[in-house]
Design goal:
The complex is a heterodimer of chains A (about 230) and B (about 120). Chain A is built from six helices and no strands. Chain A is mainly alpha-helical and about 230 residues long. With about 120 residues, chain B is mostly helical. Chain B is elongated. Classes of the chains: A mainly alpha (about 230), B mainly alpha (about 120).
Chain lengths: ~230, ~120
């Protein structure tokens, strides 16, 4: 994780910049997990079909097309869990990509922000007043022991830093929000799978015995805006 | 016409065990992405009042909760249902000698399965 150098903390405070708290390394490793989850959800529905003695690999004389109940079951299995697991797997890939992109956006933001702060700090610390009381009042033009030109250079440096950090913040937010759209549509796809799976399972004979809809509080949470 | 409860039992076992095997091999990775993040509890990505990242934090919380939910339905509820259905089928097969009198396993699927 890119950390803000300790000697820039004071400059950041002065120009009103708040560092981003999210750890980009954590995001990148989470992206890896989502990437692996894609494979897991794909495998989940294929693994049972590899076992022998099942309807998929019969060791008896059963043949597909001669037994209506078994045909119905295999058709059901093909159509329902397989399809749903593949939809979930597809979201895994999309989310992994979005998380990786956000990790990159945050890393770029941090690098650019600290560079801007460093430039401002270098200008402001020319006279060695960086940590003195005068430094903190520089915005109000009450600088003791500084010449007029120093004051102008200092406030220009602060204004420049404030401007570019403001632009950087907005740019970062826009970039992240574009990735958020991918995450939101993945969420919607997963919710649709949940709803369809609940309906399908409920259609099984004696169905819905085990079907639980959303866990307690979930619906309320979604309705209140997911916050 | 086969009357093969053994095949049905093996199919049910494979459905149950197959998912367990995949899960065991990938426990850590799945745990990282299926843990539900409640909005009122601590999350790794909490970014209150940080406008740059709060949309992401909120949407990610929602996403991981949705995956948790779909995972529960697909890997737990669905397996239990399938296991149950196969047991029922085996019983119907065993109890009914006349093929024409056997209940068939007709599943009426919802009209729209595409996600």
């Amino acid at each position: 994780m890119i950390k803000m150098p300790d000697d820039l903390v004071e400059t950041a405070r002065l120009v009103g910049y708040t560092p981003i708290a999210i750890n980009e390394d954590k995001l990148a490793s989470l992206a890896k997990s989502w990437g692996k989850a894609e494979g897991v959800y794909k495998a989940m529905v294929d693994t049972p079909m590899k076992a022998s003695g099942t309807v998929w690999d019969p060791t008896t004389t059963w043949e597909r097309g001669n037994d209506r109940p078994l045909d119905a079951f295999t058709e059901f299995y093909e159509n329902y869990p397989r399809k749903h697991f593949h939809t979930v797997a597809a979201q895994g890939r999309a989310v992994a990509g979005a998380l990786n992109n956000i990790a990159g956006i945050i890393a770029n933001h941090k690098t650019a922000a600290y560079k801007t702060l460093k430039v401002a700090k270098d200008v402001l610390s020319r006279g060695g007043h960086m940590l003195g009381g005068a430094y903190h009042t520089v915005l109000f033009f009450h600088i003791h022991g500084e010449s007029e030109s120093d004051v102008e250079t200092d406030s220009a440096a602060i204004r420049t830093a404030m401007d570019s950090l403001k632009k950087l913040n907005q740019h970062t937010q826009d970039l992240i929000d574009a990735q958020v759209k991918i995450i939101t549509s993945a969420t919607k796809a997963l919710d649709r799978v949940s709803d369809n799976a609940t309906k399908t399972t409920g259609a099984l004979p004696g169905g819905a015995e085990y079907v639980k809809t959303a866990p307690d509080g979930y619906q309320f949470w979604v309705e209140s805006g997911g916050r | 016409m086969t009357n093969d409860p053994d095949m049905l039992r093996k199919t049910g076992d494979a459905v149950m065990r197959g998912v367990d095997d995949v899960y065991l091999d990938n426990q850590d990775d799945l745990l990282a992405v299926t843990s539900p993040y409640y909005p009122d509890s601590y999350t790794e990505f909490a970014s209150d009042k940080d406008t740059r990242t709060q949309n992401f934090s909120q949407s990610y919380s929602h996403l991981s909760y949705s995956l948790f939910r779909v995972d529960q339905i697909l890997t737990i509820n669905e397996r239990l249902e399938i296991r149950d259905c196969l047991d029922k089928m085996a019983k119907i097969f065993a109890a009914t000698e006349d093929e024409n009198k056997r209940d068939v396993f007709d599943v009426k699927l919802p009209s729209r399965l595409d996600a």
